[in-house]
Amino acid sequence: MIRVEGLHKSFGEQHVLRGIDVDFYEGQCNLIIGLSGSGKTVFLKSILGLHFVDQGSISFDGRILGEMGKKEMKSLRQEMGMVFQGSALFNSLSIEENVRLPLDFFSDMTLEEKAERVRFCLERVRIEVDSFGKTPAELSGGMQKRVAIARAIVLNPKYLFCDEPNSGLDPETAIVIDQLIHEITHEFGMTTIINTHDMNSVLEIGDHVVLMEQGKKAWEGRMDEVLNSDDTSVVDYVFRSNLFKKLRSALRES
Amino acid sequence: MIYRFLEGLGQYFLFLGEVFHKPEHWKEYGKSFFREIELLGFSSIGLVAFISVFMGAVLTIQTAINLSDPFVPDSYIAIAVREGIILEFAPTIVSLILAGKVGSNIASTLGTMRVTEQMDALRVMGINPASYLVLPKIFACLVFNPILITFSMALGLVGGYYAGDFLGLVNTEVYLTGYFDDFDPFYVVYSLTKTFVFAFIIATVSSFFGYNVQGGAVEVGKASTKSVVTMSFSIILFNYILTNLLLQ
Description:
The structure holds two protein chains of two kinds.
Chain A: E1 2-11, E2 14-24, E3 28-34, H1 40-48, E4 55-60, E5 63-64, H2 70-77, E6 80-83, H3 95-106, H4 111-124, H5 141-153, E7 159-163, H6 171-188, E8 191-195, H7 199-205, E9 208-213, E10 216-221, H8 223-228, H9 232-238, H10 242-253
Parallel strand pairs in A: 3-8, 3-9, 6-7, 7-8
Antiparallel strand pairs in A: 1-2, 1-4, 4-5, 9-10
Helix pairs in contact in A: 3-4, 3-5, 4-5, 5-6, 6-7
Chain B: H1 2-19, H2 26-41, H3 45-66, H4 74-115, H5 118-125, H6 129-166, H7 172-180, H8 186-211, H9 217-247
Helix pairs in contact in B: 2-6, 3-4, 3-6, 4-6, 4-7, 4-8, 4-9, 6-7, 6-8, 8-9
């Protein structure tokens, strides 16, 4: 479990995170939603330790970020996997080398064991063996995202972070990516945190949904609670579009 | 302006501190080093060869025309060409050209990696991006640039010889003896010392600008241009300082 308590973060005069308290649970897809500029990405990067926080604490199964020594921090890093918005694959490396990189740095596996693990992860995200030697530029956006997921899970992490994994993808591929993350989370019992704007993701895989508004947690609940909630923040955010307004009234009538 | 310069200089040294942080996985750095040698070194051979041969030829033609006096032996032309190539053209001019080619490549590559979050990806994995991405580039430049410059010296002299012969400007036998007359091997040491310093400037300054890009594609382009301008200024400035220190 990841516990966040009283988190504050500012950039100069701009107070981006204003005291967030939230728990993210193991074996669940924890979704962070909110308007652009609500502080979702800063929040995610703060949890990852990419931003130093001004106030508050973040703990990973009791281990507090910022109070750990170098060794502990290094071992925690190896328990984290991250899928970036733009995939962030290394263009100079092949798909196989991209996925193998964390193993090259942090495992004592033999070459054969590494190759086996890389194959397992790539096949798990449904990448064909023919594509292993290709460079990221030769793949479609959806395939790049799948390779990024494979790289994120190659060290068998306890915590998986995804920053808008569906952005720039067509609806069909977006569903495939969502399902993949959901399956992997449950299969490996990971604590997964996903930043998203995609309401489809919220309703499909949101085991735990956190709505952020102006750097604060405005609401949290399960995916089935989203459509029935009368909370003004949720209503304002989710039911802005006519489609969702109609969906909501239809659900309520039924 | 002075404040901004000092602030930038401070950031540059802090960056170097991060880069020279002790690597924990030498094997991976080794692999990366050989990739950089190929990317930054071997890919420049053609350009350096072409420029060196023709610059040697031009130097010979210009010197021969300016020293066309029956009382000045052709060996003097060769000495002038030799000194010009070894002391200045190969180390300084070729380094300036490499600053444009290699430096802009480094700055734009690192800048792109920054804006596409590849550096964040490394950091999340627990890998120090400054050290992993920049250190192999510095070593590749430090190892390969002196080789390129030595190659440039040799080809410049060859180009000069053949131009003189082809255009009938010099007596080739006398000219060739001039290449070895009063040769001071320290000039090569001086030249390679400069090359070493310039290689460090090219690798670190371009990496500094690329590594610290913030924004998008436009900022990557700006960083690449800024890095080439800063490298050119630095190379010219250090050329003056090193010449003063080593030759006086």
